[in-house]
Design goal:
The longest helix is centred in the middle third of the chain and has 33 residues. The chain is mainly alpha-helical. The chain is about 65% helix and about 5% strand. A two-stranded antiparallel ribbon has the order 1-2.
Length: about 200
């Protein structure tokens, strides 16, 4: 079959369309809403395997530690009945946190940067910055005290900025990545060619 296809292309003179050509042709027939939905799908498609894996792991973790249907009286969890399952329950949170608390913002920044033609590694750095351990965890903000804010605040003299992370956040990561890529394009335009050559050789 492969040989027949090659012979047909050679005889008929029909050119083989690349994946990019097919995408471009399809995009030309779409309305603005369809184009926007397609762009969103392209951004999140590479993240789907991690999201599915993380969801399955957290689901199994819930069975171990949050479903009191085990034991002689049916009111205990597997984690409360066995030290082994307690250890597994604790360990699985490492993966779950990596996927949903940290991986989602990093993955979004990387995917958007790649789609917009930026430097993917810089997108990863941006995502890691949003979830840095130096920032207050977003889930701790509602219960933060004055002492916490004294620790998690940048003081520039004329202004103070709270140091808050964006764990598990989608919209802030999208906006940060889009802004970053426009900034990167701007600075590429005004950066001397010799510095861009150094940047290109290391990216």
């Amino acid at each position: 079959m492969a040989d027949f296809y090659d012979d047909f292309v050679a005889i008929s003179g029909v050119s083989e369309a690349s994946k990019a050509d097919v995408k471009a042709a399809a995009a030309g027939n779409q309305n603005p809403l369809q184009k926007a939905m397609g762009a969103i799908a392209e951004v999140f498609a590479p993240l789907i395997p991690a999201i599915i894996t993380g969801g399955l792991i957290l689901g199994f973790r819930n069975v171990l530690g949050d479903m009191p249907y085990f034991g002689p009286d049916g009111t205990q969890t597997l984690a409360s009945l066995s030290q082994f399952w307690t250890g597994v329950y604790s360990f699985l949170w490492l993966i779950g946190e990596a996927v949903f608390h940290l991986g989602i913002p990093v993955g979004i920044c990387w995917s958007i940067t790649k789609k917009m033609g930026g430097t993917p590694m810089l997108g990863i750095v941006l995502g890691l910055t949003l979830v840095s351990g130096q920032l207050m965890n977003a889930y701790n903000v509602p219960s933060a005290t004055a002492a916490d804010w004294a620790k998690y605040t940048w003081d520039f003299g004329f202004a103070q900025v709270h140091m808050i992370g964006y764990q598990s956040q989608v919209l802030p990561a999208i906006l940060a990545a889009i802004c970053f890529n426009y900034y990167e394009r701007f600075f590429k335009k005004i950066t001397p060619a010799i510095i861009q050559m150094i940047h290109g050789s290391t990216s």
